[in-house]
């Protein structure tokens, strides 16, 4: 049987993904037609991205799975018409990009690079930074991205504490869970990295009370999702000097409006949701492998738990 794969991720992505996807399916020996249009009741798999024209999944009566092109699923997981298995994207190209972003921004703050990059003013400031072993980093979220970033930071010598919903053992880092674990993880964060998904449980996780657990002058790096942090509480903590800096890649509203106070804040760095992205060649392999699995009656990879929301 030839599977019908509906590419419902927009024209721009179709231009980028068409060839890698067809090549990947071919390499795996999967007989499939991939197109941006099929009668709904003839579709076997839906390749999806937020903003897709497909919002009602009810007509896709024979579809076996929705395969999300992105890691974050908060814009689809709560869709009441979605009864199909939903797979999210775990792509080694995406992971590598995130490891590079997080490592770069952690090293910027650890090494105090701004002091030398921004102040070429003739003043000799001979303060050498401490070694990584003397800078504590915490990572909230130890999934595909958080765990990879934490491991790189461990490799560089940082003492790393990680926090996740379920208990974990990851070589080289201390892994904590629960509200007490969160308090400890925050209290030990000279630099805090957020790589949690956005769910009802994680929205505004970092409110004023939890931000107050962070050591004075701590730095936040957030490539997770904007609503993980209470923006007003963050600005208040930065204004008071309780926090030293926030490097933010993701926001409650994107693009971040030009008049948003984050843009001009001296203790905020805005990056425009570029921490990492799905890479077509490697991501197409993940999509193709899931279609192969579906056709072979095997379990899908990277399934989302609708109850947990990620
Ligand atoms: P993932 O593999 O699903 O991992 C999520 C992690 O968060 C897991 O460790 C999970 O715990 C933990 N978690 C979820 N809810 C929690 C809760 N209530 N309390 C404590 N821990 C909780 O996700 P991922 O692939 O690493 O991606 C993480 C997020 O990165 C995405 O959801 C997306 O928002 C963001 N992202 C951003 C960019 C960008 O360019 N800025 C790019 C890609 C992704 P368990 O391990 O116990 O399940």
Structure description:
It is a single chain. This protein has 310 residues and is α/β, with parallel strands linked by helices. The protein folds into 2 domains: 3-91 and 278-296, 3-Layer(aba) Sandwich (Rossmann fold); 92-270, 3-Layer(aba) Sandwich (Rossmann fold). The chain has helices spanning 11-27, 92-111, 113-117, 144-155, 178-187, 208-211, 231-240, 261-264, 280-296, and strands spanning 3-8, 32-35, 45-48, 65-68, 86-87, 137-140, 160-163, 174-176, 191-194, 218-222, 243-248, 268-270. The strands form 2 sheets. The chain has a 7-stranded parallel beta sheet. A 5-stranded parallel beta sheet has the order 2-1-3-4-5, covered by helices on one side. Strand 11 (243-248), helix 8 and strand 12 (268-270) form a beta-alpha-beta unit. The mean pLDDT is 97. The site of NADP nicotinamide-adenine-dinucleotide phosphate (NAP) has 29 residues, from helix 4. NADP nicotinamide-adenine-dinucleotide phosphate is lined by residues 71-72, 90, 94, 141-146, 164-166, 195-199, 201-202, 223-225, 249-250, 273, 275-276, 310.
List keywords for this structure.
five-stranded parallel sheet; alpha/beta; Rossmann fold; seven-stranded parallel sheet; 32% helix; 310 residues; binds NADP nicotinamide-adenine-dinucleotide phosphate
Structural class: alpha/beta
Query: Whole-Å distance between the termini?
Result: 32 Å
Query: At the third CATH level, what is the topology name of the largest domain?
Result: Rossmann fold
**Beta-strand percent range:** 15-25%
Approximate shape: elongated
Helix content: 25-40%
Walk across the major sheet and give the strand order.
8-7-6-9-10-11-12
CATH arch. level architecture of the largest domain: 3-Layer(aba) Sandwich
Can you count the helices?
9
Counting structural domains, the number is 2
Major sheet, described briefly? Answer: 7 strands, parallel
Please, what is the CATH homologous superfamily of the largest domain? NAD(P)-binding Rossmann-like Domain
Care to count the β-strands? Answer: 12
Low-confidence stretches: none
Question: Which cofactor or ligand species appear?
Answer: NADP nicotinamide-adenine-dinucleotide phosphate
Summarize model confidence as the mean pLDDT.
Answer: 97
CATH C-level class of the largest domain is: Alpha Beta
Helix/strand order: EHEEEEHHEHEEHEHEHEHEH
Q: Compute the gyration radius: what is it?
A: 21 Å
